Automatic annotation (TrEMBL):
GO cellular component: cytosol
Membership in a protein family: Belongs to the thiolase-like superfamily. Beta-ketoacyl-ACP synthases family.
Domain Ketosynthase family 3 (KS3): 3-414
UniProt-recorded name of the protein: 3-oxoacyl-[acyl-carrier-protein] synthase 2
Pfam families associated with the record: ketoacyl-synt, Ketoacyl-synt_C
Annotated metabolic or biological route of this protein: Lipid metabolism; fatty acid biosynthesis
EC number: 2.3.1.179
Keywords: Acyltransferase, Fatty acid biosynthesis, Fatty acid metabolism, Lipid biosynthesis, Lipid metabolism, Transferase
Function: Involved in the type II fatty acid elongation cycle. Catalyzes the elongation of a wide range of acyl-ACP by the addition of two carbons from malonyl-ACP to an acyl acceptor. Can efficiently catalyze the conversion of palmitoleoyl-ACP (cis-hexadec-9-enoyl-ACP) to cis-vaccenoyl-ACP (cis-octadec-11-enoyl-ACP), an essential step in the thermal regulation of fatty acid composition.
Amino acid sequence: MELKRVVVTGMGALTPIGNNWKEYTENLIKGVSGAQKITRFDASKFKTQFACEIKNYDPLDYFDKKEVRKYDRYSQYAMVAADEAIADSQLDLEKINLKRAGVILGVGLGGIDTFMDGVSNFAQGDGTPKFNPFFIPKMIGNIAGGLISIRHGLKGPNFTTTSACTSSANAIVDAVNYIRLGKADVIVTGGAEAPINETGVGGFNSMKAISTRNDDPKSASRPFDVDRDGFVIGEGAGILILEDYEHAKARGAKIYGEVAGVGINADAYHMTAPHPDGEGAKDVMLLAVEDAGMKPEEVDYINVHGTSTGLGDIAEPRAIKLAFGEHAYDLNISSTKSMTGHLLGGAGAIEAIASIYAVANDIVPPTINLDNLDPEIDDKLNFTPNEAQKRTVDVAISNTFGFGGHNASILFKKFKA
């Protein structure tokens, strides 16, 4: 069976450094940090008092008051980014077959705001159950995808993947395969997360997973730096419009790039830690390269998972060296989480957009705050420290890894008809 080609024809983003995909990518190239003191709640008693929040977001700019009451913040983010991506793709929803247009999203925590508020209100009451009738539909992790399909009349495949920080990358992989197999013409895919509340910050604090650099939030996310002390929690959404190439060509769509290869696997090693030698990460990158019918030395750039945590930032460069051998030293590597923070289930989606942008524009976004490379990491690798670098980027890989040992790599390449 000959597989269909899959291309990217639209993008949408709502991130801590930009409320649309163009603003987001411009600030990536500028090296802008999205970290700031938490405004969502009083964090003065928390070990971590900062995060990468979305700025200047008013839900009433996008939804009416009745809708806002029905939608958790993560669903709002997903819908806003999906609206942008669909508009960017210039899809005419009255002319395409809506039964072959679907939504596949990735979400890690889902409606954690709704869950926390509902349980808190109950605990503070007299024991009488007085839950909001929208409590369940606002909270569940699949609802954002359902809402997007309802909003745009998309009747094709519709489901949500949950694999911790790999969730939206897994969603993109699934979307690619549905189109490749001829099961759909168009898929709205990506992911969203809204974890910045007392439970999200408190939970990660208890794990000692997030930075406590309260005196200088903007320099707190520092992947591969010897002084890193954990990731910075972020929020937002990223959405891609993936399309069968022949379908896109027939309607004269602009094409940002091609999704040429995908890989997914598992470390089968530890609940929260990566394999120390990067075995799973190495294998998943090679799976994506093999799936694309390419050779490792054809890859130009890797947007790494690079969370700014102790173990992960050691294992991933090891994996790159194992996968690419001597070619590893010719690669550009960067972690855009140094700017956006870690969007958890939404991370793979916004990092896919960063990778597509690099391929389309021949520029690699930087790893900011990289002042002193950890001595355990090979200093001959090019982590694109602190400033973007212009270079030919014909092929980029986006890596995403998650608690539970989930790994995903997506290979994007320049589109050629």
